[in-house]
Amino acid sequence: MIDAAAIRTRFRERGFIVNDAFATALQLMLALRKPLLIEGPAGVGKTESAKVLADVLGTRLIRLQCYEGLDSLTALYEWNYPRQMLRIRMIEGEGATLEGRESQIFSDEFLLKRPLLEAIVQDAAPVLLIDEVDRADEAFEAFLLEVLAEWQVTIPELGTIRARHPPHVVLTSNRTRELSDALRRRCLFFWIPYPSLEEEIAILHARVPGLSERLAVQIARTMEVLRGLSLQKAPGVAESLDWARALINLHRDHLDLPALEQTLGCVLKVREDHHILESHRETLEPVIDGTQELRPGGHSLDTDFGLGSVSTPRT
Questions:
Q1: Non-local CB neighbours of 76 within 8 Å, separated by 6+ positions
Q2: What dotted CATH number matches 4-69+116-191?
Q3: Pick from 129, 264, 290, 310: most CB atoms within 10 A?
Q4: Domain boundaries along the sequence of the chain
Q5: In Å, how far from its chain's centre is CA 237?
Q6: What is the pLDDT of residue 230?
Q7: C-alpha pair distances (Å), 280 with each of 170, 222, 229, 230, 273
Q8: Consecutive 10-residue averages of pLDDT for the chain (315 residues)
Q9: How far is it, in rounded angstroms, from Cα 158 to Cα 138?
């Protein structure tokens, strides 16, 4: 079984920086075969961590994107009705019995597998990403608990299908609503906050080749200031990376006020937040012009990326 140290190394090789706590959470998820619930602000890498994990394990990533109104059948399977109707017309003159006709149209050939069923029938354990589970309603959450507990589904026309290799499950949540205690007890838990100053610099260098040290520091400092403001949509790591790539594309090796104004759309996505930033312009000026020295962020690279700890389910 892959250990935490190997997870850290392999994630870093793929440009994703994890600390010991997060790597240990992933190790325990794999060892205990329990789902891992990852929470944190938008844009800190929750979804990306599942993608990288699938790459590290050399297995398939299957993603179920949750949304309001998602039901069990949409997540499990559907029948291909147009093809079924075409087959019925083709066999009308064959004189087949009713049972014979049903066996032809209700077969695997006409079954459209959706993410949950797709994850169950794989020959090797995939990584199943249940993304933004907090957007689904409580009824779907209850159904999900049953699937996570049994790893089998019953299709009336075909019978019960059991997983030969239960998937490695990662659930993500932005906490738009509170999840049930039952789901939380079923999972291990990890919280990913915004990275510290040093962590964000390390992430920028890992994900944006050719980024100068000066520009990486300026971006990380600016993000730290922006996340301290009362913004409607605070920028995440995804915005940091987009901003760095945009500045490189504009052939910038450092950040100044004109560059900030030209590229602010990479960082702030709500008009009201632009007004808030304008009212705090004096806070950003020393960060951008370099009069503010790079200071320790107060966090350790080895202990705080994710700023959480793995927790076992409550009994």
A1: 114, 116, 117, 153
A2: 3.40.50.300
A3: 129
A4: 4-69+116-191, 197-289
A5: 13
A6: 92
A7: 39, 12, 9, 11, 11
A8: 92 93 96 96 93 97 95 88 79 66 74 92 96 94 90 85 93 93 95 93 93 94 93 94 96 90 94 91 78 43 34 35
A9: 28
